[in-house]
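Backbone-to-sequence.
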């Protein structure tokens, strides 16, 4: 039997903070036919609130170090303000959205990250995705809107990279759906020169990515995005595209953005 297509779409803080881009994106997402899941970040708003409260922030290769105070900010901003604003706006556009984080319905179970040399604080790495729950929601015509928070099953919430959550959900759901994972952000795709939109790569293979990363052409927040993109492809996701969130219809149709591929040689 041919699998039903499921679009898992992720947007980040740069889109959430740009009202014009967010408005365009949400209208296109609401109009997107078929099964879909939205995963959102909200980094800039969390950083701004941390600055207002005098709480220093530290990032390593695009990933936030999360101490106890930063975790409280993440919960307030990601699971509260950003999530519920998006859900309300999607309802106004005729999309029956359900705003959740990883603790709701035991959606995303995780463990505190273990690293040999870096203490990431209260950061979670996903262990399980509640596939039956997502499947029921989708079957009921609901569109899950997932905030980047997970939990450890013992009462502890954990800050989790939104790109990682999108990847984990996409690969988990690929057992039942033909999943297309779309990372929407403010750039036209993966760029050889971040200041030049014309340097967009139409496609990117794994070996090319490894070379560009070693040459520091690809750095910072793009690294976890691409790491997650390749991980998703290796674990059953049909297609991964990275591009401008406000061009969602073109990304879904494969007319824009950067197509992420694993070459035969890799």
């Amino acid at each position: 039997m041919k699998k039903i297509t499921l679009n898992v779409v992720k947007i980040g803080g740069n889109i959430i903070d740009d009202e014009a881009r967010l408005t365009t994106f949400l209208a296109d997402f609401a109009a997107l036919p078929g099964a879909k899941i939205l995963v959102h970040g909200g980094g800039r708003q969390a950083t701004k609130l941390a600055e207002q409260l005098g709480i220093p922030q530290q990032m390593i290769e695009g990933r936030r170090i999360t101490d106890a105070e930063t975790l409280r900010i993440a919960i307030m901003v990601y699971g509260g303000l950003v999530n519920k604003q998006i859900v309300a706006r999607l309802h106004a556009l005729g999309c029956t959205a359900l705003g959740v984080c990883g603790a709701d319905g035991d959606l995303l179970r995780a463990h505190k990250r273990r690293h040999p040399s870096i203490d990431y604080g209260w950061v979670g790495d996903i262990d399980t995705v509640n596939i039956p729950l997502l499947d029921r929601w989708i079957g009921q015509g609901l569109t899950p809107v997932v905030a980047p928070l997970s939990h450890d099953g013992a009462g502890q919430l954990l800050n989790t990279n939104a790109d990682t959550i999108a990847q984990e959900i996409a690969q988990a759901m690929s057992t039942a759906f033909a999943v297309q994972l779309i990372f929407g952000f403010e750039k036209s795709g993966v760029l050889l020169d971040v200041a030049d939109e014309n340097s967009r790569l139409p496609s990117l293979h794994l070996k090319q990515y490894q070379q560009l990363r070693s040459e520091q052409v690809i750095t910072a927040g793009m690294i976890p995005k691409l790491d997650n993109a390749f991980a998703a492809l290796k674990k059953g996701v049909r297609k991964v595209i990275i591009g401008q969130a406000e061009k969602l219809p073109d990304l879904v149709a494969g007319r824009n953005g950067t197509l992420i591929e694993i070459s035969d040689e890799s």
